[in-house]
Write a structure and sequence with these properties.
The protein has two domains: about 5-155, NAD(P)-binding Rossmann-like Domain (Rossmann fold), CATH 3.40.50.720; about 160-315, Alpha-Beta Complex (L-2-Hydroxyisocaproate Dehydrogenase, Chain A, domain 2). It is about 40% helix and about 20% strand. It has ten helices and 14 strands. The protein has helices spanning about 15-25, 50-60, 75-80, 100-120, 135-145, 160-170, 210-225, 225-235, 240-255, 300-320; strands spanning about 5-10, 35-40, 65-70, 85, 125-130, 155, 180, 185, 195, 200, 205, 255-265, 275-285, 290. The strands form four sheets. It has a six-stranded parallel β-sheet with strand order 3-2-1-4-5-6. A three-stranded antiparallel β-sheet has the order 7-10-11, covered by helices on one side. It has a three-stranded antiparallel β-sheet with strand order 12-13-14, with helices on one face. Helix 4 (about 100-120) packs across helix 5 and helix 5 (about 135-145) packs across helix 10 (about 300-320). The structure holds nicotinamide-adenine-dinucleotide and (2S)-2-hydroxybutanedioic acid. Nicotinamide-adenine-dinucleotide (NAD) binds near residues 11 and 132. It comes from Planomonospora corallina.
Length: about 325
């Protein structure tokens, strides 16, 4: 019997990440080359027509695995029966906007979407939040979905992880495949901490293969501020690399991996307050993320993890004060 298609809902489908993402999902790269998918595109009313245009192009690819496309501006329709939700659409920061305004505007998006997921998604729903501020948007959505297991809500730090791999590979002149156990800790923001004290290259600790000044003054800020550098160069935020990271995150979540980075709800590991959606070193086994345990954290790393986690708790407190969670 033919396999039932997996329903993948993408919000912000007419945006630039959406455009880079949808074709890869439809070609089988999100879930596997033998898994049929049904796409549901959620957009705001004024962007539905553009999403329809993208759907026409998807049709024109005649993807063998794509069993259908639905386009809507209603979250209750978009998430109905969804197995995977990629929450990409978000309110960007505009000139003159305070952080509280940004959090509030996004609360108005991610709260209702979380509720729609709660009320309509399939029992095995997995949610990846890409839209910024991703960790806190994921927390807002999760808090509006009390019937969905909390750990199904995740936020994307895989792009940061891939950036860290690439920067280190270039520095050491090695293929990215030689680097193991890379970790991004904390928030998807400039406070994130890319950790070379557990990363290994050819079996050696990466931090011991580079000088401390490069690690501290070049590597960490280059990775942490790469998003801003891309915006500066392209005049628009990263899109294809963000879509690529979303594909990597969900593929590994479903199919398993021994070590990567993902922002998932903290269970209190490594002193990160329980419930905060923070990036950790993670493995994926039997379709579930697990925080890799037992790593020694030295003072250099502790200070940086704590700073990023502090920012996350401040964001949580801010959305709480605004009544968004
Ligand atoms: P974009 O502006 O090109 O597209 C966003 C789309 O979302 C637009 O089409 C808009 O109409 C839609 N949208 C807005 N509100 C919506 C809602 N309530 N429901 C459904 N759709 C809605 O932006 P983009 O370049 O595609 O980026 C999307 C988000 O991803 C931004 O928040 C960006 O900062 C973030 N981002 C995150 C990462 C990461 O690593 N986590 C990386 C890059 C970009
Ligand atoms: C990125 O890391 O590329 C983005 O999160 C940057 C942004 O602000 O959209």
């Amino acid at each position: 019997m033919a396999q039932t298609p997996v329903k993948v809902t993408v919000t912000g489908a007419a945006g630039q990440i959406g455009y880079a993402l949808l074709f890869r999902i439809a070609s089988g790269q999100l879930l596997g080359a033998d898994v049929p998918v049904k796409l549901s595109l959620l957009e705001i009313p004024q962007a539905v027509k553009a999403a329809e245009g993208t759907a026409m192009e998807l049709d024109d690819c005649a993807f063998p695995l794509l069993s259908g496309i639905e386009i809507t501006d209603d979250p209750n329709v978009a998430f109905d029966g969804a197995n995977v939700a990629l929450l990409v659409g978000a309110m960007p920061r505009k000139a003159g906007m305070e952080r509280g305004d940004l959090l509030e505007a996004n609360g108005g998006i991610f709260g209702p979407q979380g509720k729609a997921i709660n009320d309509h998604a399939a029992d095995d729903i997995r949610v990846l939040v890409v839209g910024n501020p991703a960790n806190t948007n994921a927390l807002i959505a999760q808090q509006h979905a009390p019937d969905v297991p909390a750990e199904r809500f995740t936020a994307m730090t895989r792009l940061d992880h891939n950036r860290a791999l690439s920067q280190l590979a270039a520095k050491l002149q090695v293929p990215v495949t030689e680097i193991k156990k890379m970790t991004i800790w904390g928030n998807h923001s400039a406070t994130q901490y890319p950790d070379l004290f557990h990363a290994e290259v050819g079996g050696k600790i990466a931090a011991e293969l580079v000088d401390e000044a490069w690690l501290r003054d070049t590597f960490i800020p280059t990775v942490a501020k790469r998003g801003a550098a891309i915006i500066d160069a392209r005049g628009a935020s990263s899109a294809a690399s963000a879509a690529n990271a979303a594909i990597d995150h969900v593929f590994d979540w479903v199919n398993g991996t021994e070590w990567t980075s993902a922002a998932i709800p903290s269970d209190g590991s490594y002193g990160v307050p329980e419930g905060i959606i923070s990036s950790f070193p993670v493995a994926s086994r039997d379709g579930k993320w697990e925080i890799i345990q037992g790593l020694e954290i030295d003072a250099f790393s502790r200070e940086r993890i704590d700073a990023s986690v502090r920012e996350l708790t401040e964001e949580r407190d801010a959305v709480r004060a605004l009544g968004l969670i």
